Amino acid sequence: MNWVEFFSMDGKGFFVWGSFGVFLLCIVVEIVMVRRRIDRAQQSVRDSIAAGESGTARTAQ
Amino acid sequence: MNLFKYSAPSSFYPLAGKLVPWFGTLAFVAAVIGLYLGLFVAPEDFQQGEVYRIIFIHVPTAWMAMFIYLLMAGYAVLALVYQTRLSAMMMEALAPTGAMFTAIALWTGALWGKPTWGTYWAWDARMTSTLILLFLYVGYIALVNAIEDKKRADKAGALLVLVGSVNVPIIYFSVKWWNTLHQGASISVSQGNKMAAIMLASMAIMAFACWMYSMAVAFCRVRAIILEREGQSQWVKSIKEAVS
Fold first, then answer.
1. CB-based contact B232 A48, cutoff 8 Å
2. What is the DSSP letter of B188?
3. Which residues of B28-41 are buried (b: 16+ CB within 10 A; e: fewer)?
């Protein structure tokens, strides 16, 4: 298989790889953003539990 | 098994967590097979040459753009009629992925249009109605984020999605109803398939990959939304998975 020919796509490489590249980029960006969002949400729950526990501890003292 | 049980965020949260890796793995495997078949096995098109390979992402993403919107419309009905919290959350989780697929469909369509029609864009019915679909997604996201009160935001968002759903059949039938630059359907229920088997298989596998990806990412996002909205409730704090 000739890779130069494959990537040139009959001289239409810009259009083909421009499509596949943006598709892949969007998927990667979305996965990263969703991952960050759930990490942030979980951190916020952890923070609120910690704040609740320290509040309870203070009340007990 | 009582499926209605999973309409409660507290039951759905752990279930979604278990399903995400399965959908993610299926999406990845299907995408690898679909791309391999589409880029290496499927032959060159006799009319368009190599550039036709854009079809393997253009058509699946365009299908997903419409399908996700219809799914959101289904959730909008459930949210408005039964006032189920999870339905509104699912709408919010699906919208960014739907918007992304619509934008990719428009982008790949433009890059396919230039070498085949000689233009990146034309105000033809298929393209214009797909652009309106993108505006509907963006409008929904902007609307639900602009209203502070979540209940009101969900209701307004559901109404917008329902009204906008009339655009989906317009997109689908636009190539039949009007004389468009965009070609007619290559696969239709009434006329069957006009594509070679290997091309159709690659496209179908890529569509399956996009579908599984959407499920994985929407379920992952809905878990974040559940925590954002119900983070203060006791059930969230009581499940280890939410905080581990």
1. yes
2. E
3. eebbebbbebbbee
Residue B3 token pair: 């499926």
pLDDT tens across A1-59, in order? Answer: 788 888 888 888 999 999 999 999 999 999 999 999 999 999 988 888 888 777 666 65
Element (H or E) spanning A17, and its range? Answer: helix A13-60
Residues of chain B with Cβ-Cβ distance to A14 below 8 Å are: 111
B71-104, pLDDT tens digit by residue?
999 999 999 999 889 999 999 999 999 999 999 9
- The answer to whether residue B99 neighbours chain A at the CB level (below 8 Å) is no
Using H for helix, E for strand and C for coil, what is the string for chain B? CCHHHHHCHHHHHHHHHHHHHHHHHHHHHHHHHHHHHHHHHCCCECCCEHHHHHHHHHHHHHHHHHHHHHHHHHHHHHHHHCCCHHHHHHHHHHHHHHHHHHHHHHHHHHHHHHHHHCCCCCCCHHHHHHHHHHHHHHHHHHHHHHCCCHHHHHHHHHHHHHHHCCHHHHHHHHHHHCCCCCCCCCEECCCEECCCHHHHHHHHHHHHHHHHHHHHHHHHHHHHHHHHHHCCCHHHHHCHHHHC
pTM of the model: 0.92
CB proximity A36 to B under 8 Å: no
Q: Is B1 helix (H, G, I), strand (E, B) or coil?
A: coil
Write the burial class of residue A36 (CB in 10 Å: 0-12 exposed, 13-18 middle, 19+ buried): exposed
Q: Which residues of B touch A46 (CB under 8 A)?
A: 243
B227/A45 Cβ within 8 A = yes
What value does the CA radius of gyration of chain A take, rounded to a whole number of Å?
Answer: 25
